[in-house]
Design a protein that fits this description.
By secondary structure, the protein is an alpha+beta fold. It is 43% helix and 17% strand. A hairpin with a 3-residue loop joins strand 3 (156-157) and strand 4 (161-171). The model is unreliable at 1-7 and 222-227 (pLDDT under 50).
Length: 227
């Protein structure tokens, strides 16, 4: 189970793969040549770099020109191109987020991450266990009262512990966190995202939401004991 990842090949990943093929290098050999004595750690950093994590992989990047038998400029050019790709991916993701936005509300528990994440994902993830259904035909000023009806019936958020409040997403750039009484306790400068669980089934990634629909488990905010 994992969060969704971007399938597009990044420039630095393409460069590493091409050179490893040309030199006949395995991943273990590559990270050793880049200066890692701890091969497992080096491979983790390699995976992070190929996935676009540029902040945590500076040590590996310094060793790549020597490891790949390339001029430092070649690696630097690939990294600059990767930064441009990542910026474009972020821009498109933000545009898609804005285009698909609808006001929403989610329960908050004492835990910040779900316990038993496999069961959580298999049974519908956040859209089943945490989303509070809102009547969007009603004005936004009614969203808190709508959410409170569900909150008062839900003393425990499944997989997240005792209910401590809820959050309402009013726009892509505005969300408000409320306590159990419906009092605002925090303003957020972007919509709250409850996280998405991805299942790997038959070698294909399937979202928890889609899997729940297939299995007939879809439906917002339906913990045990509530229809």
């Amino acid at each position: 189970m994992s969060e969704s990842s971007n399938p597009r090949s990044l420039a630095i990943q393409a460069l590493i793969l091409d050179r490893c093929r040309a030199l006949g290098l395995s991943r273990s050999e590559l990270v050793r040549r880049a200066g890692f004595k701890n091969v497992a750690k080096g491979i983790r950093r390699l995976d992070e770099l190929c996935g676009g994590e540029l902040q945590k992989t500076e040590w590996l990047m310094k060793g790549l020109p020597s490891a790949l038998e390339l001029a430092p400029r070649r690696v630097a050019d690939a990294l600059r191109e990767t930064e441009k790709q990542l910026a474009e991916i972020k821009r498109r993701a933000d545009a898609e987020r804005r285009a698909s936005f609808h006001p929403s509300a989610y329960l908050l528990g004492t835990e910040t991450r779900p316990t038993q994440i496999t069961i959580y994902g298999l049974t519908g993830g956040p859209e089943r266990w945490r989303r509070i259904p809102l009547d969007l035909s009603q004005p936004a000023v009614t969203f808190v009262q709508q959410a409170l009806i569900v909150v008062r019936k839900t003393p425990v958020v499944p997989f997240y512990g005792p209910t401590i409040g809820f959050v309402v997403n009013y726009s892509p750039d505005r969300a408000v966190r409320f306590d159990l009484a419906g009092n605002p306790v925090a303003m957020l400068d972007r919509a709250y995202e409850p996280g998405r669980v991805t299942l790997l089934i038959g070698g294909k990634q399937v979202s928890a939401d889609a899997f729940a629909m297939i299995m007939g488990l879809s439906g917002p905010c339906q913990p045990p004991g509530r229809a």
